[in-house]
Amino acid sequence: MAYALPDLPYDYNALEPYIDEQTMRIHHDKHHNTYVTNLNKAVEGYPDLAAKRIDDLLANLEIIPGDVRLAIRNHGGGHANHALFWTCMASPGNGGGGEPTGELAQAIESSFGNFATFKETFIKAATTQFGSGWAWLSLDQHGKLHVGSTGNQDTPLSHDHKPLLCLDVWEHAYYLKYQNRRPEFVAAWWNVVNWPAVAERYAQGNT
Ligand code: MN
Predict the structure, then answer these.
(1) How far is the CA of 110 from the centre of ligand 1 (A)?
(2) Centre of ligand 1 from the C-alpha of residue 17, in Å
(3) CA dihedral 23, 24, 25, 28 (to 10 degrees)
(4) What's the gap in Å between 56 CA and the centre of ligand 1?
(5) What contacts 24+ positions apart, CB below 8 Å, involve 51-56?
(6) Complete DSSP assignment for 16-66
(7) Which end of the chain has less neighbouring CB within 10 Å, N or C?
(8) d(Cα 67, Cα 64) in Å, to the nearest integer?
(9) Dihedral of the CA atoms 25, 147, 90, 132 (nearest 10)?
(10) pTM, full prediction
(11) 34 C-alpha to center of ligand 1: Å?
């Protein structure tokens, strides 16, 4: 198989009480796994596509043959977005939560004024995304930070941005614990954000 489901970088219950174990099991083992399975089906018969990194395919959707382009955009996006999402989180108090430090903190301050304003902007993007999608902090080709949202499994990679931080706002990400209360899930999620991992991605992308 060209693409494989990555293991979670922590236990299924590591994000409790903010994200519950059952949600993490279904989200990773079922939802993410299904994206990987369907992505592998989409690239069957296209060894040149199957040999590429998924991020490279998503950054160059226009070079993908038309009959598999939408499948790769949806299922490949689903694979890439979830793989990134797991690494955006860590156990509360053990890498998760708090605020960024160092160069990333400075970049957030110079782009948004301060961390609180950034957070407000990101929360707005996450809560106002209509239907299924994602909220993002991304870096453009000029080294500028952006907050935004995408529908379905679309990714800033397809707009020449490097994703730094993402939040899944599909109902499957929160419905078992939070039901229809997306804003409550979004508010709780800050307790598990892995800022050191985000800062490392920023440092790599901003060289
Ligand atoms: Mn999801």
Answers:
(1) 31
(2) 18
(3) 120
(4) 21
(5) 51/2, 54/3, 54/79, 54/80, 54/83, 55/80, 55/157
(6) TTTS-HHHHHIIIIIIIHHHHHHHHHHHTT-HHHHTS-HHHHHHTGGGS-H
(7) C
(8) 8
(9) -10
(10) 0.97
(11) 11
Selection from 103, 203, 118, 101 nearest residue 162 by Cα? 203
CA of 57 to the centre of ligand 1 (A): 20
CB atoms within 10 A of CB 27: 23
The alpha carbon of 152 and the centre of ligand 1 are apart by a number of angstroms equal to 10
Domains and CATH numbers, the chain: 21-87 (1.10.287.990), 102-205 (3.55.40.20)
- Say how many Å lie between the CA of residue 5 and the centre of ligand 1: 13
Q: Which of 89, 95, 145 minimizes the C-alpha distance to 115?
A: 145
Question: Which tokens sit at 19?
Answer: 């994200």
Q: 165 in the Ramachandran plot: left (φ > 0), alpha (ψ -120 to 50) or beta?
A: beta
Give the model confidence (pLDDT) of 150-183 as tens digits.
999 999 999 999 999 999 999 999 999 999 999 9
How would you class 110 by CB atoms within 10 Å of its CB: exposed for 0-12, middle for 13-18, buried for 19 or more? exposed
Dmax (CA) for the chain in angstroms is 49
98-151 pLDDT, tens digit per residue, is: 999 999 999 999 999 999 999 999 999 999 999 999 999 999 999 999 999 999
Residue with tokens 């489901």: 5
Determine the distance separating the centroid of ligand 1 and the alpha carbon of 121, expressed in angstroms: 21
